[in-house]
Amino acid sequence: MNVISEAHFGLEEHEALQNDDEPNPENIANGIESEIKEEEEEIPAETNLEEDRSSPLPLDLEKLSEEIDQFILTLSTSKGDDESTPPPDVPHFVEQFAVMVEAKVGDYDSSDNPVKWNQLTEEDSASFLEAIKRLSSLSNTLSEFSSDNKYANSINRIGGVLQRAMSYVEEEFKSLLEDYKIHDSDPSNGNESQPKQSTPSSSNQESYQNTTTESAPTEDHNNFPGYSEEILSDLIRLSKAMVVGGHESECCQEYFVARRNALEESLHKLGFEKHNALTIEIVAWITTFKQCAAVHFPSEKKLSDVVFLDHPWISESLFCSLSQGLAIQILNFAGAVALTKRAAEKLFKFLDMYEALRDTLQTIENIFPDELMNEIRTEASMIKGRLGEAMISIFIELENSIKADSAKTPVPGGAVHPLTRYTMNYLKYACEYKETLDQVFREHQKIERADSATGSDFNYNSQSQQQNPVNEVVKQSPFQTQMTKVMDLLDANLEGKSKLYKDHALSSIFMMNNGRYILQKVRGSNEIGSLMGDSWCRKRSSDLRQYHKGYQRETWGKLLNCLHPDGLTVNGKVVKPVVKERFKSFNAMFDEIHKTQSNWVVSDEQLRSELRVSISNMVIPAYRSFLGRYGQVFTPGRQTEKYVKFQGEDIETYIDELFDGNAAPMGRKKP
User: Fold this and answer.
1) How many other C-beta atoms can be found within 10 angstroms of the C-beta atom of residue 76?
2) Which residues, other chains included, contact 368 with Cβ-Cβ below 8 Å and sequence gap of 6+?
3) 262: buried, middle or exposed (CB in 10 Å: 19+, 13-18, 0-12)?
4) What angle do CA 523, 525, 529 make, to 5 degrees?
5) I want to staple 480 with a disulfide (CB 3.0 to 4.6 A). Which of 108, 474, 476, 535 is the partner?
6) Is 651 exposed, middle or buried (0-12, 13-18, 19+ CB in 10 A)?
7) Where is this region: Disordered (predicted)?
8) Which residues does 528 contact at the CB level (< 8 Å), separation at least 6?
9) 301 with 320: CB under 8 angstroms?
10) What pLDDT does 278 receive?
């Protein structure tokens, strides 16, 4: 549309326009169009509206915009004048401006060929937003005269065009908000991999930089969640237009829904489901919680701060609503887990969740407003308390399970008992969390002290000290005390189980096996070793030596009696029948020991080697000496073969077959 002069709107039309109580917008538009056609007959063909709509339109709109601004100023000034002076009439160009903006909205929002926001040139988009801003200002100014009937039609007309324009802006704002990308993240360090950002036009980039420089001069824009700088710049401009245009609630609603969906999609990708939360892996929950604290919460805050740069209260309200809902959803899962049935295998998952709550909350202290942070902190503290109670209960259940393990069937071969393996492996892994568990037990101890009238079973004060070898009192931490208590219960249980063996030597082997296993687990872990201490390990080593001596005495002491020289000579002469009986007794006894103890089990190679070496050192020299001194009394041949069944090398071979758990027939060498 070329320059449209006010001359075509004569005084008569102006008065008719003002005096018509119910003017029809379509008639007005048709009247404008007929006058435009008359004007076109006088305009050269090269400037005809149908032949070229793109070039003249910005010029007309610019001229009309100046007139609208002047009219708004006039209205604002007149409102402060004497009430006896009537406000000015609505000039023709107000309707003309409304028609032109409506036409532009119709072009963009056409059902046949709609124009997306990113298809507009920078000039077109800037002109359109300026027109909306001017419409909004005009609508607000006219509304101040709503009691005057002569403004009613114009108020309705401008409001209708503004509503249609806002509908288009709202739809484009929503579309841009939904144009995010979910990117892979590395929860281990909390850094989100960044997308390749589309390069905005130079003018768009300049506009964006001008918008954000004042509030965030050092902001890294690549950190905004899934949006290119170009889209982010458009979001800023459209949000401003919606707020200025009186559509703040619609803007906030679209933003909230889009970002909530984006966050839920991100959580879903991390493995966290909103529904049936108890069925998901706790590992996924921990990953999600850490990722939200390290990436999503900070990113959402930066995004809302930038999109609503001129309206910080809107930014804070939206961010709090989004993050609060997400935080509660995540914390609710942790709270539900803490209330589930306590089972030993859940200890480590509870510990992981406890540590995640404790450590991750520190990273978001400066992100949330104080009121919201206090709410989150209170909820997390309550959940930590429940998790702590669950962990204390699990240790009590461990104690009870050790006490209740009273099986009457001894482990074959005196091997390490399953209870020993389970308990020590459990404690070993638990001690990897020793600092956290010590914190849990300390907090529980404080609660018990504050409520001593409850008669709690968790009184650690009576067990919080132990004596070291030089009678110095060493104060134990609460978890250290708990560990000592469990170890003592395990010792007592194993001592009772050792009495199930009728053979005292096998009882000693059983206690050696289990004691050695416990000691190796303690020494093999810095965490559990530091808790139990050197004096405890020395005491264990001393106990093992006593069991070893008891085994040697029960088994090999009796065998060596056969090799004692007492009673073998009378008046300096060897008593052959007695020698024969000694050899026969030794052979029978050694056969029985080999047959029996080859089935016994010593799984620890070092302990097995130590036992064999000590037996060899005890038996082989004594047997060789006995054989050398008294083997000569037998007549070579059948008599020697009958009584001298073993040579020294044979004894050594058979000793090396002890404690394998699978006996080989006597006389057959192992391959």
Assistant:
1) 12
2) 297, 320, 323, 376
3) buried
4) 60
5) 476
6) buried
7) 1-59, 181-224, 452-471
8) 427, 428, 431, 434, 483, 521, 522
9) no
10) 59
DSSP letter at 116?
-
Q: Residue 232's closest CA among 133, 167, 159, 309?
A: 309
Task: Give CA torsion, residues 302, 308, 310, 311, to 10 deg.
Answer: -110
Report the distance separating Cα 634 and Cα 298, nearest Å.
96
Q: What is the C-alpha to C-alpha distance for residues 290 and 298, in angstroms, rounded to an integer?
A: 12
Q: Which of 617, 620, 629, 549 is nearest to 582 (CA)?
A: 629
> Residues 485-505: what's their mean pLDDT?
95
CB 254 within 8 A of CB 170: yes
Counting every residue, how long is the chain?
A: 671
Specify the DSSP element, H or E, that contains 390.
helix 370-404
Q: DSSP characters for 219-264?
A: --GGGSTT--HHHHHHHHHHHHHHHHTT-HHHHHHHHHHHHHHHHH
Q: What is the CA radius of gyration of the chain?
A: 46
Whole-number Å distance between alpha carbons of 643 and 636: 11
Mean pLDDT along residues 485-511? 95
The crossing angle, in degrees rounded to 10, of helices 282-291 and 248-270 is 140
Residue 182's pLDDT is: 66
**pLDDT score for 363:** 84
Question: 569 phi and psi, to 5 degrees?
Answer: -130, 145
d(CA 443, CA 445): 5
Strand partners, 474: 466
For CA atoms 603, 607, 613, 616, the dihedral sign is negative
Q: Distance between CA 216 and CA 204 in Å, rounded?
A: 18
Q: Residue 341: what pLDDT? A: 86
Given a contact cutoff of 8 angstroms between Cβ atoms, the answer to whether 460 and 399 are in contact is no
What pLDDT digit, counting tens, does each position of 150-182 carry?
A: 888 888 998 899 999 999 999 999 999 988 876
Tokens of 302: 């930066």
Average pLDDT, the chain: 80
- Strands 185-186, 569-570: parallel, antiparallel or unpaired by DSSP? unpaired
Collapse the DSSP code of 565 into the 3-class scheme (helix H, G, I; strand E, B; otherwise coil) and give the result.
coil
Asked whether the beta carbons of 497 and 410 are under 8 A apart, the reply is yes
Cα–Cα distance, 32 to 24 (Å, whole number): 12
Report yes or no: 306 and 236 within 8 Å, Cβ to Cβ.
yes
Task: With CA atoms as reference, report the closest residue to 514 among 486, 491, 531.
Answer: 491
| Tokens read off for 669 | 């060498």
Could you tell me if 315 and 212 are in contact, meaning their C-beta atoms sit under 8 angstroms apart? Answer: no
Two structure tokens written together for 314? 């809107």
Query: Looking at the predicted structure, is the pLDDT value of residue 52 above 60?
Result: no
Coil, helix or strand for 185? Answer: strand
Check residue 296 and report its DSSP letter.
I
DSSP string, 72-98: HHHHHHHHTS-TTSPPPPPPHHHHHHH
DSSP 8-state secondary structure symbol assigned to residue 532: H
Sign of CA dihedral 376, 381, 386, 388: positive
**Tokens 């089972």, residue located:** 343
Residue 651 and residue 619 in contact, taking contact as beta carbons nearer than 8 Å: yes
pTM of the model: 0.70
Burial label for 450, CB within 10 Å (0-12, 13-18, 19+), is exposed
> What span, in angstroms and rounded, lies between the C-alpha atoms of 310 and 304?
11
Q: What is the per-residue pLDDT across 443-466, written as a single tens digit (0 to 9) for each?
A: 988 876 665 544 444 444 444 445
Residue in the structure block whose two tokens are 């965490």? 527
Element (H or E) spanning 186, and its range? strand 185-186
Task: Please name the residues in contact with 166: beta carbons below 8 A apart, sequence gap of 6 or more.
Answer: 132, 242, 245, 246, 247, 250
The H-or-E segment that residue 360 falls in is: helix 347-362
